Amino acid sequence: MNLKKPIFVTKPFLPALEEFQRRLPEIWESRILSNNGPMVKELEKKLCHYLQVPHISLVSNATIGLMIAIKALGIKGDIITTPFSFVATAHAVLWNNLKPVFVDIEEDSLNIDVNRINSALSNNTEAILPVHCYGNVCSVETINNIAQKNNLKVIYDAAHAFGVNDKNGSILNYGDLSVVSFHATKVFNTFEGGAIVSQDIELKEKIDSLINFSIDYDSNNVNFLGLNGKMSEIAALNGICQLDHIDDVFNKRKKIYDIYKNELSEIDGIKVYEIDTSYRNGFSYMPILVTKNFKLSRDELSDALKEKDIHTKKYFFPLITNFQRYKNFFDETNDNLNFANKAADEILCLPIYPDLELSELDFIIDSIKSMA
Q1: End-to-end Cα spacing for the chain
Q2: d(CA 364, CA 267)
Q3: Do 295 and 208 belong together in one domain?
Q4: Does one domain contain both 27 and 174?
């Protein structure tokens, strides 16, 4: 097969341009471009209904969302988290002048290893920041028990988890707060953006204030250290238009995941990351692990696919703890991060997006099989 164009690891879904343009005049007529305008309010309401969560605060991006979530809960001490994530997870901790404490992950789920959390606890620990890696649900009940027993806050980095459910419904309802990403690479996007899910109105109101510089317009005063994390009306409009198509997006991504899984699972040295299909999942990524039994290393396979114009991503590599900025925050005497390091060395995310054609998917799979 000769490719007409490169196959990228992801491609943002966009609604038909006509749908977007149809409602643009409302923004032009209102002249409201930001500051919690009507589009933002409409999207918040629709997302609460679709995701079945009580309160949502839209933000300009998920990194800002994590930073605000930490500030809103008044966390002053150490935060236990995972090194197997995008660096924004740890950045949000440091930006609050707090210490991230890294522990290893589970070998199969690649989520934070709950058995390591207890051993990492100290008198300075005030919170846990787990990541629902690739949208797979963390061991939420155990994390909740640890948090309650030790009087800890829990913030879930749910960047990959838009629309993901388990037996209890939306996983965004776990913990004190959950933060989801609406970046262009995510299943649901607002060009750039994110949201903080909270469980009570008082906390939402505090978050909304922090997003808007913490200005109290009633008293004409500033009571907290806030920042500008507001979502624009244009971004919110994109989200409103996308919601009408999101179930179809989920279905298309699932079909692609199923084909990959069926075709690649029998290849010696390729381990398809198992995503729980018992409940709704957005299949935000298509991760495989290239183990030592495969003829090529992960890097060699990635390079060989790139030569065929198939673009993959080593997501997450390197580990956060291997970045120069974070090496001083990890003590190997407490946790060796064996599984996290192994995953970082083996992980490879393959192309997945609704517009991926079956012929392109077949080409990717055949290319990998030819190298086995």
Answers
A1: 19
A2: 14
A3: no
A4: yes
Closest CA to 242 of 23, 20, 87, 61: 20
Amino acid at 196: I
H/E stretch holding 128: strand 125-129
Contact criterion met (CB below 8 Å) for 274 and 220: no
To which residue do tokens 């605000």 refer? 68
Same-domain pairing of 218 and 252 = no
- Cβ atoms 187, 284 nearer than 8 A: yes
pLDDT in tens, 234-260: 999 999 999 999 999 999 999 999 999
Residues 258, 352: Cα–Cα separation, whole Å? 11
- The domain total for the chain is 2
pLDDT in tens, 154-164: 999 999 999 99
What element of type H or E holds 38? helix 38-51
For 85-130, the pLDDT digits (tens) are 999 999 999 999 999 999 999 999 999 999 999 999 999 999 999 9
> Tokens 């114009």 correspond to what residue?
309
